[in-house]
Structures are given as C-alpha cells and as structure tokens.
Amino acid sequence: MEQRGIDKDSERLFIAIRLPEELRAALGQRCGRLASELEFSKWVHAEDYHITLQFLGDTAPGKIPALIDALKAATAGFTPFKLSVQQWGTFGPSSSPRVLWCGITGDLMPLHKLQQAVTSATLPLGFIGEERKYSPHITLARKYKGERPYSSGLLQALQNTEPGADEGIEDVPWTVDSMVIFVTRMNKSPMYEVVEKISFF
C-alpha cells in the first residue's frame, strides 16, 4: 500500500486520475513556452497535472483506511479505458479568466461512471460530492494578470507558432488503469503527493 505522510490532525485530500509521465512532460513543456506570453499568476507544476474525480477536503487520518477500502470495493468492476487531451479553454471572464484548462476526450462514459462510483462510495463516509455537473479537465494555470486582455485567438496563435506544433499531443490516447488519492502540500512545488494508488483490473 503506497501510503505515507499521514501524520497530522487532518489532511486535505482529493481523488484523481494522474496523467502518464510522458504526457505530463509534454504538457509541461508546452506550458513553459506559453508562460512568457500568457501572464497567469500561477502555472501548475507538470507533476501535478490530473483529472479530479472528487475533492474531499480536510480529512482525519483515521478515516483514510476506510476510504481506501470503500474506493477499492467501488471500483472492483472497472477495467482500463482510454482518454486523450483535446482543446484548451478557460473558466471565468473571457478577457481575464481565472483558470486555463485542457479538455478531455476519448472513453468519457467510463470516466463519468468512475466519478459517480467514487462519489457514491465516499458518501457513507461523510464526503459530499459537488452538485454541479461533472466537467473533467486538466487545470494548467490560474488567474490571468496580463495587461492586454486574454483571448482564445491569442492562445491559438501562440500554439500554432510553437516548435513542432504540427506534432501536437491532442487526441493521442493513453490508457487509464488506476486512480489516486492525493494529499495537498501547501506552499510546495509540486504540491500534490500520492497517498494511495488504486489500480483497475
């Protein structure tokens, strides 16, 4: 069991799908090149790229073994499925977005079923899922602060002029064969640490 770092009164946890190492690196390189042109307050560390399934919040360490057991039981019938990254977009005002994200495509039905299974499994343990519709994505940056207004056209133009832009990472599938419980380590970079990895068989 890959469990560590559980030594406080509470840990801020969430459940997620972690991107494969190669994709994390490729997205990180692209964001690194764009960061000088798109002024966001914070660009997410490449090691922290993920697709959230459920945010749990502050959790007592004593609840974690039961959480792991519940998640393993809920996902016992799942088999690996394929996803890929797609178009980029933003949340918030179009000229000053609060989040820059990368979209997800591929086998979305099992992804949504997985998210539903996770939230159903954690409910008896006192964790409440969000009421808003599930919208899977990868957060790349937060809080635009540029002097010129942000625009999707600017992002597209910058991406099109990147070295190797015609060899994009979009629509290249990867296999999702596990999910993880992450703990947040504030003021560290990367800031997410794996508490437990739960594989699908």
From TrEMBL:
The keyword Hydrolase applies. It catalyses: a 3'-end 2',3'-cyclophospho-ribonucleotide-RNA + H2O = a 3'-end 2'-phospho-ribonucleotide-RNA + H(+). Keywords: Hydrolase. The keyword Translocase does not apply. It holds the Pfam family LigT_PEase. A motif (HXTX 1) lies at residues 50-53. Residues 18-101, 111-192 form the Phosphoesterase HXTX domain. GO terms for molecular function: 2',3'-cyclic-nucleotide 3'-phosphodiesterase activity; RNA 2',3'-cyclic 3'-phosphodiesterase activity. Its EC number is 3.1.4.58. A motif (HXTX 2) lies at residues 137-140. The active site is at H50 (proton donor), H137 (proton acceptor). Belongs to the 2H phosphoesterase superfamily. ThpR family. Hydrolyzes RNA 2',3'-cyclic phosphodiester to an RNA 2'-phosphomonoester. HAMAP family: RNA_CPDase. NCBIfam families: 2_5_ligase. This is RNA 2',3'-cyclic phosphodiesterase. It comes from Paenibacillus wynnii.
